[in-house]
Amino acid sequence: MPFVDIGELRTHYSLTGDKEPVLVFSNSLGTDFSMWDPQMEELGQRFSILRYDTRGHGKSSVTPGDYTIEQLGRDVLGLLDSLDLDRVHFCGLSMGGMIGIWLGIHSPGRLHRLVLCNTAARIGTKEMWNARIATVRKSGMKSVAAAVIERWFTPEFRASFPENIARAQRMLENSPSEGYAACCAAIRGMDQREAVAQIKVPTLVIYGGSDSVIPPSDSHFLADQIQGAVTVELPAAHLSNVEQPGPFTEAVSNFLSK
Predict the structure, then answer these.
(1) CB of 39 within 8 A of CB of 7?
(2) Residue 40 maps to which CATH number?
(3) Side-chain half-sphere of 22: how many Cα atoms within 13 Å?
(4) Are residues 8 and 63 in contact, defined by beta-carbon separation less than 8 angstroms?
(5) 173 and 141 Cβ atoms separated by less than 8 Å
(6) Could you read off the pLDDT of 34-67 as tens digits, one per residue?
(7) Does the reported pTM lie above 0.90?
(8) Strand partners, 48
């Protein structure tokens, strides 16, 4: 498995294909880059694809201390620099989308196009995140897994695709608890509502009509603030790329091929 070492951080990544430009996928809180498996076959025919495990997740380093979204964004820039990638497409979901917002504001010259999925300029309250952090640090990932899975997927999907649910729950439960908590702190500390209008990169906003984590109003706010942004609503909850893989992949492919 390939890794890049930058300072204290070792980033686990996968770069496949020989096409230009490269499409970067950034995963959600509590997952690793395998969450993008449903998109690989089709999009891999059109783009080279770079997936990576966010700091504190998967096989990447669990560095000490609370993280920030800026830190996670700079991790992406460091990875691109190490791989000699100048400009890329970037697609991030939830926490990955927050990283995408930061990149769109602070490093637009590194992006061709930006896809923000099931994300917002601010998510939740400090009290909510503090409670989540305390629970995970005290009792581990299994203590929150069942409730998180309920928010990730609609009841219909959970009933119809138990194997997908079991796979997602294993990924969540195996996520390092300290890395998860440190990324919860990054989300807790992020509020990009005033800055998001600075994004000038062509942007697609994908959201789930049944997403209880990111209400559609938050997605509409992003689209309204980002000049020229387009939206796609999917009949899904939070992990829309897993619950609606075909329509999700088609939306991303169509947008990036313009």
Answers:
(1) no
(2) 3.40.50.1820
(3) 20
(4) yes
(5) yes
(6) 999 999 999 999 999 999 999 999 999 999 999 9
(7) yes
(8) 22
